[in-house]
Amino acid sequence: MTETWWKKAVVYQIYPRSFADSDGDGMGDLRGIIDHLDHLAELGVDVLWLSPIYPSPQDDNGYDISDYQNIEPLFGSLEIFDELLTGVHQRGMKLIMDLVVNHSSDEHEWFLESRAAKDSPKRDWYWWRAARDGMAPGTPGAEPTNWGSVFGGPAWEFDEKTGEYYLHLFSRKQPDLNWENPEVRQAVYTMMRWWLDRGVDGFRMDVINMISKVVPLPDGRLSAGSAYADGSAGFVGGPRLHEYLQEMYREVFEGREGLLTVGEMPGVTVDEAKLHTDPDRHEIDMVFQFDHVWADRGPDPWLLQKLQLTNLKAILGRWQAGLAEVGWNSLYWNNHDQPRIVSRYGDDSPEHRVASAKMLGTVLHLHRGTPYVYQGEELGMTNYPFGGIADFRDIEALGQYKQALELEGRTPEEVLTVLRARGRDNARTPMQWDTTAQAGFSTGTPWLAVNPNYPQINAADQRQDPDSVFHYYRQLIALRHREPVIAEGDFTMLLPNDERLYAFTRRLGDTELLVIGNFTGESVQAEIEDAASWSGAELLLTNLPGASSSALTLAPWQAVIYKRSYPH
Ligand code: TEU
Q: 185-205 b/e with 16+ CB inside 10 Å = b?
């Protein structure tokens, strides 16, 4: 196995609480994952990434961890985890854990100790600060900086007991760990080694580009209409981030083989990503960046914007070019924080759902980088028909809704329009396994409602149907395993100014691929340079009948992959 085995690999993300419930409590669990491992093996994915399964008060569905070295009882036990790991390895797959160490839960022993007294030996394990100079502690505006938290409200919580504030970039139950303190770093590395020794194959590192803060913590920029400032300049890609990641590599990963490390890095630049993933620098294997899922986001967070295809191409093209020689990227449309891609950049109407889901899969998987499939994406699962705010469970949706209405003068309908389209709960509705009650997810009442479209969209039907999204994803994954040009080849964007077609070529040695995806519901002629030279090329894969290399006319939402030898 070479150390870049992951260039040919496809990762599948499981959100355990929504994947499969084996005991009828309405919450997915590890036994449920074990029961469905054959679905994943049949799909052909190489690596499973589990969203957090550690003990947690579940304030942010497990991204608030109260014990890093155990399993949440709702999900199972360490024994069941070992059984799962064995089952994964027996099927030739790997398993990576979610590593959430920018913050812990406020119920973690470390924080309880830190909070107990100003002179606690763990006081400095978190970010404690006094009120702003000249202001009474605990009064509005007295927070140490003007930063807002991602989930609404200020990024600081006042603690009566010691009269100081602690920093939480996310919920108040997710205090930020202080990475400046070497004891914190060592405690994290010890825990990571413990999991690797147990047999896990690596980590997906939650908001890992936020662990280094600018000291002293600076105020952020306040934009018109928002209650709190954007503090990101004080903690995104901070001054010691490279140093910490290199130290982590030495302390945890050096000398171990066959692992995968992926750093989730909202707001990372291409240049920084290149440094993080340059193999000679020994930081991480690949980044998980956000630019292409922010492509339909405008300056006003509560105004829904439509995707401009040229913008998406400019963004992904920039990432392809920037990491062409050195570095590596993850490729994803979906995760547990994003709305369903077929409802977002595709068309989830009965007429076009299947074709557009397959087209989006084709375009993504044929880029250079490691593709991620989020549970249900392989079925073309869609957004949920949310009504009012009572339908949402996500702490982000609820917190942002409250802030927008109470402090920023927004109307419920304005905010709901965006939450319905973009809210994270869209990704978190239960996996649709079959046509039985609750889509076969649970015999009880699911913690979040099942999408009512499960009789039409479910795994059991799709496994039987050779034309399903499931079998198409299976082919895409197999194609990456078979064709070195997909993993290793270079990338050239075509038609950058076309608002309807996404087209590019890939080349490695004497093999060249042409990939075109039609992002519209009309048929479109591809006006690429030298189009005629592709006539006679081999059709590797398409999602609809009637593709012809001599015409290059794409039916609504059609995708094609052609292959020829180079030079031709
Ligand atoms: O997400 C980080 C992150 O950037 C999110 O704030 C994301 O941009 C936003 O929610 C999109 O709406 C990670 C996890 O993936 C997320 O589930 C956690 O809530 C968050 O970190 C805190 O751990």
A: bebbbeebeebbeeebbbbbb
* Tokens of residue 157, six digits: 């919580």
From the number of C-beta atoms within 10 Å of its C-beta (0-12, 13-18, 19+), residue 325 rates as exposed
Interval 314-373: pLDDT, tens = 999 999 999 999 999 999 999 999 999 999 999 999 999 999 999 999 999 999 999 999
Residue with tokens 């990432």: 319
Q: How much is the pTM?
A: 0.98
Among 21, 264, 378, 425, which one carries the catalytic annotation? 264
Residues 262, 329: contact at Cβ < 8 Å?
no
Whether 183 is a known active-site residue: answer no
How many residues in the chain?
568
DSSP codes, 394-406: -HHHHHHHHHHHH
Q: Which of 475, 481, 433, 485 is nearest to 454 (CA)?
A: 433
pLDDT higher than threshold 80 for residue 94: yes
How is 182-218 classified by DSSP, letter by letter?
Answer: HHHHHHHHHHHHHHHHHT--EEEETTGGGSSPPSSPP
Tens-digit pLDDT profile for residues 428-459: 999 999 999 999 999 999 999 999 999 999 99
Active site residue 272: no
* Angle formed at CA 329 by CA 316 and CA 238, multiple of 5 degrees: 100
Pocket of ligand 1 (CB under 6 A): 60, 63, 100, 150, 170, 206-207, 266, 336-337, 396, 424
pLDDT at 1 over 90: no
User: Which DSSP helix (H) or strand (E) runs through 518?
Assistant: strand 511-518
- pLDDT per residue as tens digits for the range 129-146: 999 999 999 999 999 999
